[in-house]
Design brief:
The complex is a heterodimer. Chain A contains 8 helices and 12 strands. Chain A is an alpha/beta fold. Helices cover 48% and strands 11% of the residues of chain B. Chain B is built from 24 helices and 14 strands. The longest helix of chain B is centred in the last third of the chain and has 19 residues. Chain B is globular and about 80 Å long. Classes of the chains: A alpha/beta, B alpha/beta. At the A-B interface, helix 1, helix 2, helix 7, helix 8 and strand 9 of A face helix 2, helix 4, helix 5, strand 1 and helix 9 of B.
Chain lengths: 257, 495
């Protein structure tokens, strides 16, 4: 297991028949050796990509505004809740902890968990980030923290009420939050809880889908890329839109700088 | 557990009979009317709000063309990259082979959950798994509803579009135990529940299945060759839960789902969500198997899928690749052509007799291996008025009407059944007339005189024996004098 060598797959008759069917093109003989076809394409990979038109040009200055507009359209909620018709804004790093604490306090006082401490799931790998932002200490009075280590941990609580996660980055073009997932338990944090609270640093905002794909290539330690644009929704019953089909019913975003 | 023993084309009825029955079904009409213009408006709004929709569509088409042109190389590249990460790639030539591979992967595992996948419907996977004693649960709400109803999807992106809320309520009451009666509206157990309650109930029922599942099967919207990863786009999050919760994850996709690289994938993503439901992306977009499992010999992903399997299905696609219908492989299954089709929106998806319906189904169904021998599949390309709306809305520019015309030509040249006497006679007469202009003029002139006589000064004919199908719903206008009509024939067909 320690050093995985890329060995050519044993001859696979089905594969070769399919490929042979696909190769009836000019110059390519039927059943051409697979080994000779491959390098041709890999060479081309390195060449410069043509420019793709994006849906909208977004200047860095307006990135946050664009993201907020887009995400609001997708039924994301921003914290702290804006008063009246005012648009949500980017808050200072120092006030992130207070914002979350205020929100959770209001949930606690509303009796979301029958007056007992709110169970909150966090990602074990993000504990350090959350401690740096001083969140864990501030929310302590109202919450019971749980770290999801293994996917089987969820069996005890099929409907965890809250989770707090820090997004790796976000896409302004589509109003999406991007998570690079390492473990299944980590990935489940974005789907199983009813309320998903996401922290996002303004400097992690990217303009387009391509930039997001490119950024993901720089990191090595993840297995799945997950892009979340708004709470889980369905319109399968008479085309009526409802939030919370299988995933979170509410997606709360805190954008800070 | 309902037995999914429905096999497609089980009845001998063709499109014609089924569509007549569909038009006479008031519940279906009500459901289709309700779906009505929602999809159309959403799509229009989504494309109107972006500045350069035409270049975005052109780029998507370019990306798909590039993928189809280099399909063999890209598939091999995909396999190589995926295998380098320890992902398993399986190839299946036919539906049976694909089912056999998946059954093999599910051996010894009983509880299976599925995200929405049209390819799995194409190969009739549920039936095969149930026969092997597994318990399969569809997790997409629409698919879940039709699984309970023991039906097939009637729309590629909204499978239960033909069901009304009342029908769904009745289904849930029949299949679910311990419905919390307190939640039923107005304390009246018979009252129809709101869709919020229905969605919530399905959420609770399916959540248990997620937590206990051993294998998850999902489709893939794209297979990115340079990454060796599968891209999945869902709105409910059920696809991702199906991928994450069980130990083993199987991604099933047609070989035409291949795409060259990230840039091409992004180009297609821009039009996919917009065309399908007017969304800029779709709620959850995930890439599975995106990065290597190991780095310098260190195992990076301890608990995560060591167990990801791609099953690549051919089922007639590689034959299409070298045929006149190659452009059909560009299809990204957004469903825009269904929503805009006057035929589809009148008769619904089930009249088409198979999983793919609407204009794309009319081309795909007769071409895919499983169904190409069916006479009812051959009938499909004829069920079109060629209005061309599907071509106009297709985000990747597939000329659906001309592909249908080519199918009609193939059908005429090589009919599955010998042509009837009536058809042969009509063809012979036409051949004779078209070859002899003088005779043609004479016959048409006579014909027009007869029509004029029949109209008897009313200016139209409301009943004409041989073409009752036409005159039943319309009047044939005869408002010009036969003489001037004959004169115009003279000028347009000179001797």
């Amino acid at each position: 297991m320690s050093s995985r060598v890329i060995t050519p797959q044993p001859r696979n008759a089905t594969r070769e028949r399919i490929i042979a069917n696909l190769k009836i093109k000019k110059g390519a003989a039927r059943g051409e050796k697979i080994a000779t076809i491959l390098p041709k394409f890999i060479e081309r990979k390195g060449k410069k990509q043509r420019k793709t038109p994006t849906t909208k040009f977004i200047a860095t200055k307006f990135m946050a505004t664009e993201f907020i507009t887009r995400a609001t359209k997708l039924s994301c909620k921003f914290l702290p809740a804006a008063k009246g018709t005012a648009t949500p804004s980017v808050i200072a790093k120092s006030s992130v902890a207070t914002t979350i604490a205020t929100y959770l306090k209001s949930c606690y006082e509303k009796g979301d968990n029958n007056g007992t401490a709110l169970p909150i799931l966090i990602d074990a790998e993000q504990r350090k980030t959350l401690t740096e932002l001083d969140i864990l200490k501030k929310i302590e009075p109202y919450c019971k923290l749980n770290e999801a280590q293994k996917i089987t941990d969820f069996a005890a609580t099929p409907f965890p009420p809250f989770s707090i996660q820090h997004a790796n980055y976000a896409i302004a073009e589509t109003g999406s939050l991007v998570f690079l997932q390492n473990t299944r338990a980590q990935a489940a944090l974005s789907f199983l809880p009813s309320k998903h609270i996401v922290l996002l640093n303004e400097k992690d905002l990217l303009a387009s889908l391509e930039q997001a794909f490119a950024r993901s290539s720089t990191s090595k330690t993840y297995w799945a890329i997950l892009t979340v644009s708004g709470p889980s929704r369905t319109a399968d019953i008479e085309q009526e839109l409802h939030m919370g089909a299988h995933g979170p019913k509410e997606l709360l975003v805190i954008l800070y700088r | 557990m309902p037995l999914l023993s429905l096999s497609f084309f089980s009845s001998s009825q063709g499109f014609r009979q089924k569509s007549v029955a569909a038009l006479a079904n008031p519940t279906l009409r009500a459901a289709l009317d309700k779906a009505g213009t929602g999809f159309l408006n959403a799509r229009k709004k989504a494309f109107d709000e972006i500045e350069n929709s035409s270049s975005i569509k052109a780029r998507a088409q370019q990306a798909r063309t590039r993928a189809i042109d280099n399909m063999a190389e890209l598939l091999l590249l995909f396999e190589r990259n995926a295998q380098a990460k320890g992902i398993h790639v399986h190839w299946a030539e036919t539906a049976e082979q694909a089912c056999a591979i998946i059954i093999d992967l599910c051996r010894g595992k009983k509880r299976i959950i599925k995200g929405k996948s049209m390819v799995s419907e194409e190969i009739n996977l549920n039936e095969a798994l149930l026969k092997n004693g597994a318990e399969v649960t569809e997790t997409d709400l629409g698919e879940y509803i039709i699984q309970l109803a023991n039906e097939t999807p009637s729309h590629i992106i909204a499978p239960a579009v033909h069901k009304t809320r009342a029908q769904i309520d009745a289904l849930f009451r029949y299949h679910h135990e311990n419905i919390e009666e307190a939640k039923v509206a107005d304390n009246n157990p018979k009252a129809q529940r709101t869709s919020v309650l229905l969605v919530e109930e399905a959420r609770q029922k399916i959540r248990d299945k997620f937590l206990q599942a051993e294998v998850g099967i999902t489709g893939a919207n794209m297979l990115i060759a340079t990454r060796g990863a599968g891209l999945l786009l869902t709105n409910e999050g059920n696809g991702d839960l199906s991928a994450i919760m069980p130990q083993r994850h199987i991604m099933l996709a047609g070989i035409e789902k291949i795409i060259a690289d990230d840039g091409d994938a992004a180009a297609v993503l821009r039009v996919l969500g917009r065309s399908a439901s007017g969304q800029s992306l779709g709620n959850y977009m995930s890439l599975y198997g995106a990065q290597p499992l190991q780095d310098n010999g260190k195992d990076l992903h301890k608990d995560l899928h060591k167990d990801l399997h791609f099953v690549l299905l051919d089922n007639g696609r590689s034959k299409m690749h070298s045929s006149a219908w190659r452009e059909m492989l560009r299809c990204i299954r957004c469903g825009a052509c269904l929503n805009h089709c006057p035929v589809y929106t009148s008769v619904g998806g089930h009249a088409y007799g198979w999983v793919y319906s609407g204009p794309m189904g009319k081309v795909l169904t007769p071409l895919l291996a499983e169904t190409s021998k069916q006479t009812s599949a051959q009938e499909l390309p004829h069920a079109s008025s060629f209005c061309g709306r599907c071509v106009e809305v297709c985000p990747v520019g597939i000329p659906l009407t001309s592909l249908m015309r080519k199918l009609r030509e193939r059908d005429f040249e090589k009919p599955l059944q010998p042509r009837g006497l009536k058809t042969r006679l009509a063809c012979a007469v036409m051949r004779l007339l078209f070859a002899h202009p003088r005779l043609y003029r004479f016959v048409i002139a006579c014909f027009l005189r007869v029509l004029k006589l029949l109209a008897r000064g009313r200016g139209h004919i409301s009943y004409l024996p041989t073409i009752t199908a036409w005159t039943d719903t319309r009047d044939l206008p005869i408002n010009r004098s036969a003489r001037s009509a004959i004169a115009s024939i003279r000028t347009s067909y000179p001797r």
